[in-house]
Amino acid sequence: MTAQAQHAAPDLATIEEFLYREADCLDRVDLDAWIQLYTEDGTYWMPVSPDQQSPETEISIFYDDRLLMEIRRRNFGDEWAASMDYDVRCSHLIGNIRYATDGGPDDGWRVQSNFQAAIYYRGETTFYAGHYTHDLVNTPDGLRIRHKRVDLLNCDSAELGSIVIYL
Amino acid sequence: MTQRNNQQIRDLVREDRVHRDLYVNPDVFDLEMDRIWSRAWIFVGHDSQVPNAGDFYATEIGREPVIMVRQTNGDVRVLHNRCAHKGAKLTGRPQGNCKGFRCPYHGWTYKLDGRLAGVPARKGYDNTPFDMKDPRFSLAPVAQADSYRGFVFATLDPNAPPLPEFLDDAAATLDNIADRAPEGEVEVAGPPLRYLHNCNWKMFVENLNDAMHPMVAHASVGNAARRYVAEQPEGTEYPPEAEIIFPFGSSYEFFDKMQVTALPHGHAYMGGELSIHSDYSAVPGYWDAMVKSYGEERTKKILSQNRHNTIFYPSFTAKDAIQAVRVCRPIAVDKTMIESWHFRLKGAPEQMLKRTILYSRLINSNASMVGPDDWDCYTRIQEGLVSDAKVWVDTSRGLGREEAVGDGRRKSFGTSDLSYRNQIQAWLEYMTDEVAA
Ligand code: FES
Ligand SMILES: [Fe+2]
């Protein structure tokens, strides 16, 4: 983190408001609005193991760049896709929001938080929980996400079924 | 079901259809565990998962908990994961390293090869049948374990044919995966992705050579990608993901041309030279590394083999051109764990592994835009088969239009149900052979 970025660090209330906004986009299943919260080079990563180092040389549950986000939102709800033939409803709770003590982009900030998400899909509600890591940067449009890492508590378990929406 | 005799099992299968009991009846599932999963060679793991002496990996053969463990002499053994004392599983963690096994309950210890090393306060066994040397008090090795190009299989049946005989020509897929490495060897890259399916295990395996579904079940993601590109400024090139996604929407004619080859024991593969993977662009440096190892002619030959999915009935499926495999672990009649594993080609540019990972993430992941559609269709079959309106599942496409190509192998057009019928035939052979039960 550069001295300047440090200097300009938003207060936690601003960060909190921004993370709530992101969660709200997902709760409303508004992927269009959600994608707009990412930078052009933004990525979303859900590793398959707790200490996974690389999204490129090891498998992940999700690793989307903007392009895949754009394809995913166009695929979402497609009447030809069997997996999309169901209502999807989400409820996210975020807490313990704090600045990370290390890491993060040179021109921004790394923020960590805990999350719980209940996803209603195929007539069942599934409970997910874990840790978020957001790399945030300031842009002319306000805060944006350069990278989001979602560490599920059960990322490597044998109990995960289909996940059809970002958490 | 256990009371059902061979004739009653045979009644579940006709030349052109199978009874829904194969998918929904828990008794049939129990019998499959005894007669198929305890007899066939089941994929355990790859020996690169346990590179050093004492490295172990725990998994299941059907319902049987087992441990694959590297010995001090370099061999890989497969042991039953069951303490010889009162039966506790020896390892809680699925993998790790140990000098020997120590049961957490009463502290019996075992050498890496399974032999009993010690029991606390042994005097208490004086004048009893207890004997350190008696195999009864050691960890049991599985009936047979063997590996082919590093891929470790085991069977609980001492009378099963040797592994190479079991693999038949499916072995060529494992050869090709390893040969595609300039060093002639692959190694596991990272942990697997586990995906719990709410369906019978056979639906997953049968789907792997079902060439009638991609253009329907997987149409949406290709369309979404096309819509996205169409919205971009003129001249925008298709992204690299496109060459993985688009072939899933290939025509019926394309898949027919790929052909399907059925092998003994229920194995089969699609493709050969042409597959949905044959048009991938070259990765810089890979060709040169291959030619350096093999020379140009052999390199061409290796890279011209493009099998789509090879089925190693019942537990294992592999893609040679992608170096990705999926392992089928049945849990209950309507629960199946699918593991995706990925391999690094030793001596190849890292870009090759990145493509393998990209492929699997786009296609196999439980959060991809392909896998969940397959998942949903299997689940719907599981849900639909409760209907009493009909009890038969159709397997008739291409019936009678297959061609014997020698050594018990048969070939047909790609969208034929040949591989399906071939699996059912193997199912029947395993299920009705009461001699070895
Ligand atoms: S059950 Fe293992 S030592 Fe007793
Ligand atoms: Fe599929």
Architecture overview:
The complex is a heterodimer of chains A (167) and B (437). Chain A has 167 residues and is α+β, with helices and mostly antiparallel strands. Chain A has helices spanning 3-7, 12-27, 31-35, 66-75, and strands spanning 38-47, 60-65, 88-99, 108-121, 124-139, 142-152. Chain A has a single domain (3-152), classed as Nuclear Transport Factor 2, Chain: A (Roll). A 6-stranded mixed β-sheet of chain A has the order 2-1-6-5-4-3. In chain A, a hairpin with a 2-residue loop joins strand 4 and strand 5. The model of chain A has no long low-confidence stretch (mean pLDDT 95). By secondary structure, chain B is α+β, with helices and mostly antiparallel strands. Chain B folds into 2 domains: 42-148, Rieske [2Fe-2S] iron-sulphur domain (Rieske Iron-sulfur Protein), CATH 2.102.10; 168-432, Naphthalene 1,2-dioxygenase Alpha Subunit, Chain A, domain 1. Chain B has 15 helices and 23 strands. In chain B, the strands form 5 sheets. In chain B, strands 13, 14, 15, 16, 17, 18, 19, 20, 22 and 23 form a 10-stranded antiparallel β-sheet that branches. A 4-stranded antiparallel β-sheet of chain B has the order 6-5-4-7, with no helix packed on it. The mean pLDDT of chain B is 95. The chains are: A alpha+beta (167), B alpha+beta (437). The complex binds FE2/S2 (inorganic) cluster and fe (ii) ion. Fe (ii) ion binds at residues 207, 213-214, 217-218, 374 of chain B.
